[in-house]
Amino acid sequence: MLSFTQVLEFTGTFAFAISGIRLASAKQFDWFGAFVVGLVVAIGGGTLRNVLLDVTTFWMADPIYFICTALALFWVILFGNYLIHLNNTFFIFDSLGLALFTVVGITKTLDLGYPFWVAIIMGSMTGSAGGVIRDILINEIPLIFRKEIYAMACVIGGVIYWILHYTGVDSTWVNLISGGSILLTRILAVRFQIGLPVLKGENF
Amino acid sequence: MLSFTQVLEFTGTFAFAISGIRLASAKQFDWFGAFVVGLVVAIGGGTLRNVLLDVTTFWMADPIYFICTALALFWVILFGNYLIHLNNTFFIFDSLGLALFTVVGITKTLDLGYPFWVAIIMGSMTGSAGGVIRDILINEIPLIFRKEIYAMACVIGGVIYWILHYTGVDSTWVNLISGGSILLTRILAVRFQIGLPVLKGENF
Amino acid sequence: MLSFTQVLEFTGTFAFAISGIRLASAKQFDWFGAFVVGLVVAIGGGTLRNVLLDVTTFWMADPIYFICTALALFWVILFGNYLIHLNNTFFIFDSLGLALFTVVGITKTLDLGYPFWVAIIMGSMTGSAGGVIRDILINEIPLIFRKEIYAMACVIGGVIYWILHYTGVDSTWVNLISGGSILLTRILAVRFQIGLPVLKGENF
Asked: What is the rounded CA–CA span in Å between residue A128 and residue A144?
């Protein structure tokens, strides 16, 4: 039977893949290109974490990420136009994915014995690096460097994880509260268009 | 004495390097930049495979890939204009390289004990990821995401490898037939401009 | 107490981070984006070396690189305009960083038992790959492929390292002389706008 985390992970992977496939679609990519971009959003962040932590790449043990991305591609091919009306739904799924992937990344890094500041970086990378690689592949400046708070939501969630962990809160609650804070930060940031200050663009 | 595989590998590396150097040349790269782009096409895919499989990077054991890329650079510097007339020749070499690199990538991944679906992905990556990194370096949208069938030829060859392997065909024949099918698919795709369907580019 | 090398490393990291933050600033990145780009210039080359050599990523053992990049970001936020007048100062620091990172990269690769040609490649990568990743992130063609001699200065310094090492020169002097030659080559290249020949940009 599927656990709650597996359902969340599948949902997050699907939403991440959709985000990649939609952007690839706007650039007239073919099915293969769209599949690759969707896959990269879904597994890119975790893969980068695995490579940097020098552990086995997680997706080689389970074809679920490929199946999930293929389903996302079929979805877009079949219901492309209809997707426009689901924008808000996908935004929620995407934010759920961000929260879940970050918490998973933090936990896995801590399990390997790394200090907390490394875990927060790895968690944020798990959640947001896939989107950066996506933007590189479609030849755009990465969105997360200029728009509403995205990776900073992961960092905030990571710091909350840290505090709760050291105050002895049960790990289930640590996961739920830190994940929830990422979700909430992201939703508030987009709802009220909250971004970090932008550097003055002088050509110095 | 050189084996047949070594001759093929040298030819493929040379053709891949030429493809990178030519594109770098169209962007007014200097000799160093062209060398790096040529090298990346030649060894990028295999390096990515090695990093993901967590084995030693192959080119550190043998400077042949650097020597081969340097020769390709000298070739372009000396005979740049003449290359135009060799377009078809290079296309064949490039397709030979694609076929060989893919088959090598599949075999090496299987030797490490990974399942077949991972081997097919790694094989396709070995053959085609170098071209993706090349396009990122010259700041273009990767060609293989939009044009004639390229990476899909590797996937087709990989599936044929799989079927032949499980029906107990001798490994030499598995290599030759799956490699040949990649070569043939690629040639037919370019000859008849066969591509995958393109996603409708709505800005949804 | 800080060693001389540590002071140099801090200075180089700071200058590399500033170079990334300035370019991110010209592209209207927010503080987070600028931090990431600055960090990538500072640690990208060494991280790539670590991944290819399959050793633990160096910056996970010490948060100094993150602190140093944060300081560089605060510096640019506070004194952005004033930086224009410091162009030459930063150029010197940046070149010092290039020389130091390259020599460190060569030494660490040799310590792992790799041959000299691999060490020179890894040293050059340590010094210059961060700038390439930076340019990919800000969606520009990498500067070092088209402008004054940059990575070739690392190669020259690497060859000098090699010669001195085999003639039995003391390792302190090997480091100083090869590092100095990188610094000198880079300064002369910029002062006299010395570049490598550019490939003729025919669309062949």
From this structure: 8
DSSP 8-state code for residue B81: G
Verify whether the Cβ–Cβ distance C28 to A198 is below 8 Å.
yes
Q: Which of B52, B145, B204 sits opposite A29 (nearest CB)?
A: B145
Residue among A2, A6, A3, A179 nearest A96 (CA): A179
What kind and span of H or E run contains B31? helix B31-53
CA closest to C50 among chain B residues: B51
pLDDT tens-digit series, residues C74-122: 998 988 767 666 677 778 888 888 999 999 999 999 999 999 999 999 9
User: What are the DSSP calls for A26-50, one per residue?
Assistant: HTT-BHHHHHHHHHHHHHHHHHHHH
Per DSSP, the three-state class of B124 is helix
Going by C-alpha positions, the residue among A135, A149, A131 that lies closest to residue A190 is A149
Whose structure tokens read 């053992």? Answer: C61
CA C71 to each of CA B47, C28, C75, C113: distance values in angstroms, whole numbers, following the listed order:
35, 19, 6, 36
* Neighbour tally for C118: CB within 10 Å: 22
pLDDT of B121 strictly over 90: yes
The Cβ of residue C152 has, within 10 Å, a number of other Cβ atoms equal to: 23
Beta bridge partners of A98: none
What is chain B's length?
204
Beta bridge partners of B198: A30
User: Following DSSP, what letter does each residue of A8-19 receive, concatenated?
Assistant: HHHHHHHHHHHH
Shortest Cα distance, chain B CAs vs residue A170, angstroms: 34
Q: What is the largest distance, in Å, between two alpha-carbon atoms of chain B?
A: 59
Q: How close does chain B come to C84, measured CA to CA in Å?
A: 28
At position B172, the amino acid (one-letter code) is T
How far is residue A184's CA from residue C96's CA, in Å, rounded to a whole number?
Answer: 44
Question: Does the structure show a pLDDT above 80 at A82?
Answer: no
Q: How far apart, in Å, are the Cα atoms of A88 and each of A23, A80, A192?
A: 16, 15, 15
Tell me which residue in B144, B149, B199 faces A24 most closely, judged by beta carbons.
B199
Long-range contact pairs involving A57-65 (C-beta distance under 8 Å, separation at least 24): A57/B52, A57/B53, A57/B54, A60/B52, A60/B114, A60/B118, A63/B117, A64/A10, A64/A13, A65/A13, A65/A39
Of B51, B139, B146, the CB nearest to A30: B146
